[in-house]
């Protein structure tokens, strides 16, 4: 999960409030005496000599002028967060530093620089630190971080088996965000093969739409969460971050507002993506939908063998939700 910090070179209530409302989780204060005033504006971390994150201890700032500064940046202990600023905003120094350490934050001045920093060497910086006194720039950078959260190569899964099951416990995930048509969550019986279960954006004669909701499936299944990790659906609770994806594979972070576990009739859905198996156990109801390659939702009650829907596959192997390389067989 990429972080958005705002550098308040001068205390300005409107600018700092805009940054917090745009998703900033930390404010770098040039004037440490304004710490308590910033705390009243929102629950954020203060980066200063007397802040929650202390400059010179927890966080260090380096202006990169040459190779010597690059070498200094990579020598700090792993727990120290390093803010780097380049004199002419060239990418090469950042590439060299990012290749050697994780906790790198890049000072940026606009949306374009932020997007570039997030993609350097594919993994990007840990976060961006915006220096700007323009409200619109602050908002655009906040949106850029939200939009660039993750990009996956989704695959087409051809349905091979549909089997109604008996009653089971399923998890309905209500988020604090509104999802759009074509968006949903990746869930599956195995982390190696997941379906894109569509959000409840569609209305029907019996039930109103619930665009904040994904009826995600049985309690035992995996769901993708930030950081290329997974969780069991039954582990989700209020405040947890989870990932939602659109039909083009663009992912963004949302937060769980409520996770409801209820006993309902279930259905097993299986498919193949090339030679890889994808399977999930979902609630057997008209409002539960998978996602077609063009983003159109299709109800599980209308699904038939041979239909094509979207999914995601990778090599199997997770340990406490983290990807590991091991020999594993899941049936």
Automatic annotation (TrEMBL):
InterPro entries: DHQS (IPR002812), DHQS/DOIS_N (IPR030960), DHQS_C (IPR056179). It is an enzyme of class 1 (oxidoreductase). Keywords: Amino-acid biosynthesis, Aromatic amino acid biosynthesis, NAD, Oxidoreductase. GO terms for molecular function: 3-dehydroquinate synthase activity; NAD binding; oxidoreductase activity, acting on the CH-NH2 group of donors, NAD or NADP as acceptor. This is 3-dehydroquinate synthase homolog. Its EC number is 1.4.1.-. The keyword Ubl conjugation does not apply. Residues 1-143 form the 3-dehydroquinate synthase N-terminal domain. It comes from Hydrogenobacter hydrogenophilus. Signal peptide: none annotated. Belongs to the archaeal-type DHQ synthase family.
